[in-house]
Amino acid sequence: MKPLKVLKEAVRAKHILAVLAGHGFDGLLNQLDLHPGLLSRVLPHPEPRPVAERIRLAAEELGPTFVKLGQFLSMRPDVVPHPVILELRKLQDQIAPLPFEVMRPVLVEGLGREPSEVFEEFDEAVAASASLAQVYIARLRDGGKEVAVKIQKPGVREKIEIDFDLAEWLAGMLHQRVPSLRPFDMPSIVKEAREWMMRELDFRLEANNQEYFNALNKHPEKVFSPKVYREASSERVLVMDRVLGKSVRDAGEYPPETRRLLAGNGATSIAHQVFISGFFHADPHAGNIFITPDGRLCFLDWGLAGNLTRRLRYAVADFWVASVEQDTERIVRIAADLAPVDARPDLRSMEKDVTLALREELNFAIGRASLGKAMLRLLFIFGQNGIYLSRDYSLMAKAVLSIEEVGTALDPGFDLREYMAPVLRELQFERMSPLTLARGVRGVLRQALAGLQDVPFELRRIVRRIENGSFTINLNHQGLEEQTDAVKVAANRVTLGVIIGSLIIGSSLIITTGIQPHLFGYSALGIVGYLISAVLGLYVIWDIMRHGRHK
User: Fold this and answer.
1) Which domain does 33 fall in, by range?
2) Long-range contacts of 335-339 (CB under 8 A, 24+ apart)
3) If 150 and its partner were Cys, which of 238, 297, 346, 447 is the partner (CB 3.0–4.6 Å)?
């Protein structure tokens, strides 16, 4: 971000810096050599708290943009330490709702007409409020269906743009001035978070995710997502079925058998989403899951979803099985196979770190079995060794951790392995089925035949270039620089040796002939030749001793 643009938003920048300093990060800010006026509002040092908690509190005080940035960081276990991720998952954006008069222009613009033309009834009381949007209850004129209307708050995009401009500037300063933070590549993280945030502002993507989930969902009698009404939805307005029910947090009144059944349905659904469909809800925490009166689970807020290719689904399954079996070597081998070509991980060190992580997070002997936390730890270990896996792996780990927490809240004896095992067997059957194997063989043959079809054409191109005299072969020698230098040095010394020998022979002939003038009874010209030969000879000896015989 350009300095002049920072100055234009100096008030917001000063507030951000003051909040960071007030939460104990003034020492970090002092390394940036900022203008003294920007830190004039530094608050007193807070009471001692863990760093992770101070990061969360600062993000909540700075508002929606930094809350969303923190939530994005919680999906980057490859670069963010495990304790910080667990703390960032607690982020909440408690925003007072705006009056409907302020929201109404956005609704009219999103609908493209007056609300009365679409809704038979519209309750102007806010049903739910968040940082980006507010939800209202209405009834459609066409069919009389009761719906929830999600409306984006006015001016949100502009505020987010300003905050992200400042966040990018601050991240760049920290990256440049604080060497200990450079491995985290904060500018790239903030840039990626900005792109993700801009996508979340488009409610059409959320509608796509909900519709896609419902199309893939094979058990709508157990889990579902609200139906979206496309004709009334837009980029800033989302209209969907109203879901009656209770949050998972309020499930204590249900009998234990019902809670156990609900926990199993949620876990089985997430397992199917991850391993079979490859499309999953990336944030299924308790606030995003409702229990309907007919005993079904409703997944809400599809603004963030993960996608896994067939190869990634198989790799996740292998990671999962190896983690449960405490097979450290297999985990490291799978990660190394997925690593970029230029990665050079220390596999022995990775094995030690993975063994410790599994012992602390998946110690079944003492009842400690959090597969989600284990996955987050593993992704951080891989990232520290230069193995940055797809972001969808991070989303998957977060989804698993969230569903584990929901399952444990519903059923204290919840064990995710119990519900994952049948799904993994189904995936294994898919991998080894004759149809899958035949598809793989067919793909290999198709690529081979396509390559063979190109051979005659390429051969004709080579022949034409030979005929036209334009066929060239470029040779690039590498690793011969030292040998080239050695040859040059040797040639120079041989040349000096020939010159010295010639001078000695010529000087000797001059002295024997007695050519005038004489010096000390000998020809002066011959003596000068000897002196020059001696100087050059001493220089060669000195050069050899200085650089060594190898040169």
Assistant:
1) 3-92+158-199
2) 335/378, 335/382, 335/387, 335/389, 336/387, 338/387, 338/389, 339/382, 339/386, 339/387
3) 238
